[in-house]
Design a protein that fits this description.
Elements lengths: L2 H7 L26 E5 L19 H5 L7 E3 L24 E3 L2 E7 L4 E6 L4 E2 L9 E2 L2 H12 L12 E8 L2 E6 L6 H5 L10 H6 L13 E7 L3 E6 L6 E4 L2 E4 L5 E5 L4 H9 L5 E5 L4 H7 L4 E6 L2 E7 L9 H9 L3 H8 L4 E2 L21 H4 L6 H10 L6 E8 L3 H15 L3 E8 L1 H9 L6 E7 L5 H7 L13 H11 L4 H18 L2 E3 L2 E8 L3 E2 L13 H5 L2 E2 L1 H6 L3
Parallel strand pairs: 1-14, 1-15, 19-20, 19-21
Antiparallel strand pairs: 2-3, 4-5, 5-9, 6-7, 8-9, 10-11, 11-14, 12-13, 15-23, 16-23, 17-21, 17-22, 18-23, 24-25
Length: 566
């Protein structure tokens, strides 16, 4: 994102969800208020992991983003359903032409020193929360406090805010971020990222880790949480934002309640959708699509290429995985084309990680990659065994692989990978784990030699940084190369986006060739919703894994739902 684009085109921060000129000819349906929106989210099998942004947990923004707002969010008026070009599927990428101010009314770059001055909207209120706080206005000190508390957390991701010199409130509604030097992801890191929620000190004093104390400026208030079952959010009657549809403006949110259902069993959440107990189910495997289309033909659908790459990470500091020949051999031993055709029934792309095809300007297709990279995606068990022999790996070599039992796809796919490797004399010992223990194994660096997971692409820069630079939490292979780290440093300090794109293409090729993972196909995923869900077209995120602004703009045609027998 260039300074020019963000400093001018986005300074006002569009608030409205207006119709595009092409769609204006068709009068929009009048919204209706009320009802409860029941959602099986992208993470339907996972309960909330933390309510405290300073825990630096990747999922907390998904669960808190309904009540903790951020400086910036997706400009949903640029969505495809409104005539725009963006689907808003990406887990944490907002293109530079699709960002609006949320709590920020405007922002401006200034030099000497390099800084950004952010003007906050006036009149945004924290509601009263008995036992926690009186109602009061959001002010600049709340932004400074949220940033500093995050920055001082012992759980902070390494180097995350190294570009920031200081953050200060220069008046009640102005926050100034002073930088040590230019940083290409400045807006993502604390503007709309995974840990960017703004909250009051009163909530921390009351105990922010306890969901009962949660209180933010967002469209919903957290009113119930049952671990492993549901999150319930109730309409914030004093919410500040509105949406423009056609010639009219409407107060948000439309629904009275929003409920996330946590359902670990795949058959159960598919049934919940089919029977109308869920209004939306955001992540459906291809295996369930045909049967759902037959049993519930009125469902609406979207199809999207998973925004998480699937792979088996090797502990590259352990023998024999410190030898690139071994890592390349295990890649060539897996018939990835067959996985696409037979396992996914064609509902997958052979090559879509670590750079996602949606990242236009950053992604290079496999056919444009060097031959040594193409070789990793070509099934060749004979060459694989030859490489293992050269590296001194005996037949019947075995190693342990951890996998999360929360993923039906991984629980079925990993035994297939094991069968391929067995053909070249390598055995896997599969160790399924509950998600909390699985995640802890990575963050505490106690994983086994193999670690089978998927990892969000996030955005075109972070997809490389978080997985392949030294000391990063989401670097499951433990990859560490000072020269590679230096290149990453240079990417972040390069203002020209086209230059950054070329630098990241080079780094992507380099890490693919070194094969710290078995690179696996990326499946397509389906989202389905009932026709009584209005002003929705399958959008998934309006920030970093944050769907809150999307749900706030959905309304329910409850009469239609009753007429359909639900």
């Amino acid at each position: 994102m260039s300074i020019g684009k963000l400093g001018t085109g986005l300074a006002a921060g569009a608030l409205a969800l207006g119709l595009s000129a092409g769609a204006a000819a068709q009068a929009p349906e009048k919204p209706r208020y009320g009802g409860t929106l029941e959602v099986g989210t992208v993470y339907v099998t996972l309960s909330a992991l933390s309510w405290d942004p300073a825990d630096w947990n990747w999922k907390q923004n998904h669960d808190t983003g309904q009540f903790y707002e951020q400086l910036f969010a997706a400009d949903l008026s640029k969505s495809k359903k409104h005539g725009g070009k963006h689907a808003f599927y990406a887990d944490a990428w907002l293109p530079s032409d699709a960002i609006r101010g949320e709590l920020a009314e405007s922002w401006q770059w200034k030099d000497n020193p390099l800084r950004i001055e952010v003007k906050l909207r006036k009149g945004i209120m924290f509601p009263e929360k008995p036992g926690v706080m009186k109602a009061r206005e959001l002010v600049a000190d709340d932004v400074v406090y949220s940033f500093n508390r995050l920055d001082k957390s012992p759980k902070k991701i390494l180097t995350y805010f190294d570009h920031v010199e200081k953050v200060e409130a220069t008046d009640s509604h102005t926050v100034v971020f002073t930088f040590k030097d230019f940083f290409a992801e400045w807006d993502y890191r604390f503007g709309w990222g995974y840990f960017s929620g703004i909250y009051p000190k009163e909530v921390v004093d009351a105990g922010i880790a306890n969901w009962k104390n949660a209180n933010g400026t967002g469209p919903f208030m957290l009113t119930d949480f049952v671990q492993g079952n549901s999150n319930t959010y109730t309409k914030n009657p004093g919410y500040w934002d509105k949406v423009k549809l056609g010639d009219a403006e409407y107060k948000l949110p439309f629904v009275d309640k929003l409920v996330y259902r946590t359902i670990k069993d795949e058959a159960t959440f598919i049934t919940a959708l089919r029977t109308g107990k869920l209004d939306i189910l955001e992540a459906i495997r291809w295996q369930n699509v045909d049967s759902l289309k037959k049993s519930a033909p009125q469902l609406k659908w979207s199809r999207w290429l998973n925004m998480s790459g699937t792979f088996m990470a090797f502990q590259v500091n352990q023998k024999p995985f410190d030898d690139v020949r071994v890592r390349r051999a295990l890649n060539m031993a897996v018939n990835k084309q067959e996985i696409v055709k037979a396992y996914y029934n064609g509902n997958a792309e052979l090559f879509a990680y670590p750079m996602h095809p949606d990242y236009i300007g950053y992604y290079e297709p496999l056919e444009k990659m060097p031959a040594s990279i193409q070789e990793l995606f070509t099934y060749d068990p004979r060459k694989a065994r030859k490489l293992l022999d050269e590296a001194g790996v005996p037949k019947n070599f075995s190693f342990k692989v951890q996998v999360c039992s929360c993923s039906p796809d991984h629980m079925e796919l990993l035994p297939l990978i094991a069968a391929y490797l067995e053909q070249i004399g390598v055995k896997l010992e599969i160790q399924p784990m509950e998600y909390a223990a699985f995640l802890s194994a990575m963050t505490s660096r106690t994983m086994t030699a193999g670690y089978f997971m998927n990892n969000g692409h996030t955005n075109p820069t972070t997809t490389i940084r978080k997985s392949f630079t030294t000391g990063q939490q989401w670097n499951p292979s433990g990859w560490s190369d000072p020269a590679f780290d230096k290149k990453m440093f240079e990417v972040y300090r390069t203002r020209d986006e086209e230059k950054r794109q070329e630098m990241l293409k080079e780094m992507t090729r380099e890490i693919l060739d070194k094969a710290p993972y078995i690179w696996l196909p990326t499946p397509y995923v389906y989202t389905a919703w009932w026709p009584w869900v209005k002003n929705y077209n399958g959008e998934l995120r309006a920030g970093a894994v944050r769907p809150g602004p999307i749900y706030a703009r959905i309304w329910l045609d409850q009469e239609m739902k009753k007429k359909m027998g639900y």
